[in-house]
Design a protein that fits this description.
Blueprint: H1 2-20, H2 26-40, H3 53-72, H4 75-81, H5 86-100, H6 105-113
């Protein structure tokens, strides 16, 4: 859990940078903006005051976005904006991939395609 908390500032910095990067496709920018708004919003699918479960929806959403970015964007672009070593991005991506497996594939595809499947 401690390692995940240390990754959050890196992810936030990378997401902010990717939002203004001209080469990032519009669908990815929409997904990044939506996750930023959702995480900042006090309204959640599972309220945060419920121990452990309250943060599960946030964690899964971030995992889906990170997994999608790794699969959708060029690695060199991600490494340009990742504030750390390539190995730490790979470790974060591996954790995100494992967590994102809990989310149905059609939902993940919908997030980055920008259309209904």
């Amino acid at each position: 859990m401690k390692e995940l908390l240390l990754v959050l500032p890196r992810l936030a910095r990378m997401i902010a940078s990717l939002l203004v990067e001209p080469s990032v496709p519009r669908a990815a920018k929409v997904a990044l903006a939506a996750v930023a708004v959702y995480l900042a919003s006090p309204v959640d699918l599972i309220p945060d005051f419920i121990p452990f479960l309250g943060y599960l929806d946030d964690l899964l959403l971030v995992a889906v976005i990170v997994d999608g970015l790794v699969n959708y964007l060029d690695r060199s672009l991600l490494l340009r904006y990742w504030p750390g070593e390539a190995a730490s991005l790979d470790a974060t991506a591996a954790i995100a991939r494992r967590l994102a497996q809990w989310v149905p594939r059609r939902i993940k595809l919908r997030i980055f395609s920008g259309r209904r499947t």
